Amino acid sequence: MEKRWRCTVCGYIHRGETPPDICPVCGVGAEKFELLEDEGDRASVSGSSTGLLQEMKDSFMPHAVMAHFPNALLPTLALFLVFYLVVGIETLDHGIYLLLGLIPLSALATLTTGILSWRQHYAGAKSRIFHRKLIYGGCLVLVCFEMFWLRYNNPDLLKTGGELTWFFLILGVAALFCVTMLGHYGGMLVFGQIEKNRQDT
To answer: SS3 for 182?
Structure first.
């Protein structure tokens, strides 16, 4: 039977007689891989369920939950901005202002839970993927707070159409880029934990 090796840093599963020299997801060496039990052993372990609530308690990951908020709110903000600039409905401007208040807080909560998760589940591994997530997360928080601050101090920001408006819109594009890259690297970590063949499904 083919052996399965799990990266203890990011959870990537490798199949083969020996672990890979370098993890393709997080970049750590072969010494960070552990040999997994066979399918029969795993099935017997999974059969000893302690109930749905206990399973949720044991497996709950605040960062995975929080990450969905800026991922959803920022595209919504972009959509509201486009509609407002096209049709100029005043209520959309109020919605934009409310979103600008929520997004920085959710981005900060996501960054905070991400750092805690990185330390707890990945032992603070100093690999490229985590460094990039931290950089993009920090940039996202700063950009979102700057967008809120601009709108707070300039209630007619979207109506004036001057350089400050364009700067605000550029910041919005930067925030979308950051959240997209964070989703990309988060996906690399998540799907690194799923076996890369479909024979088990």
So the answer is: helix
- What would the pLDDT profile of 21-76 be if each residue is shown by its tens digit? 988 878 788 888 888 876 544 444 444 445 667 666 666 778 888 999 999 999 99
Q: Which two tokens stand for residue 17?
A: 């007689």
Q: Which helix (H) or strand (E) holds 14?
A: strand 13-15
Q: Is 52 exposed, middle or buried (0-12, 13-18, 19+ CB in 10 A)?
A: exposed
List the chain domain ranges.
4-60, 62-191
Distance, in Å, from the CA atom of 162 to the CA atom of 159, rounded to the nearest integer, reads 9
DSSP assigned state of 141: H
Non-local CB neighbours of 47 within 8 Å, separated by 6+ positions: none
Cα of first residue to Cα of last residue in the chain, in angstroms, is 17
pTM: 0.75
Q: What is 4-60's CATH topology?
A: Rubrerythrin, domain 2 (2.20.28)
List, as one string, the DSSP characters of 68-92: HHHHHHHHHHHHHHHHHHHH--HHH
Q: Which residue has the tokens 């709950």?
A: 60
**Tokens standing for residue 23:** 């993890």
Cβ atoms of residues 112 and 150 within 8 Å: no
**Closest Cα to residue 182, out of 143, 121, 128, 135?**
135
